[in-house]
Amino acid sequence: MKVLVIGATGTIGSAVADVLTAASHQVVRASRTGPVVVDLDDPATLDAVFSTVTGLDSVVCCAAHGPLVDLESVTDEEFAAGAQAKLWGQVALARRAIRLLPDGGSITLTGGTFSAPLARGSLGALINSGLEGFVRNAAAELPRGLRINLVSPGWIRETLEGMGADGSDGTPAADVARAYADLVEGTARGRIVRF
Q: Where is the signal peptide (predicted)?
């Protein structure tokens, strides 16, 4: 299977690309910099990647994040910009992939999970809920046996350790990556995998 992994230089994305490569899939690694460029803030890069990378069977997006913002002081513009890449960028990616993937193709997006209310997490909660609703409903609308799913990781062990925090509160990136691989290789539609 030929799989485009967007965000392939990040902690989760690189682990996903490695797991899929180890399973003998042909993986095209994309990121904001490098030979295959995708920036979810720039729809033109989505069009460009789909015109140059052909023959894809699956698209996996591990890119983008929603910033933590102070609900009381954030401006409307900052709030909208915070949702642009992770929410609207992934929706734009999925809409393009739907038109270009073959029958039975797969799209896997990335949300997030808060185990409890998080200070400055209202925007992130909005984005994650929006992605979950989009995936659940889009799965019922997709033509030609196409599938769409969402992985919603919480804290990643390696990220916590990189921040100088206790990594034991996070899930190893390799464990999260296996969930992406299971969705790419499986038959699930509209599934939300939370960690």
A: none
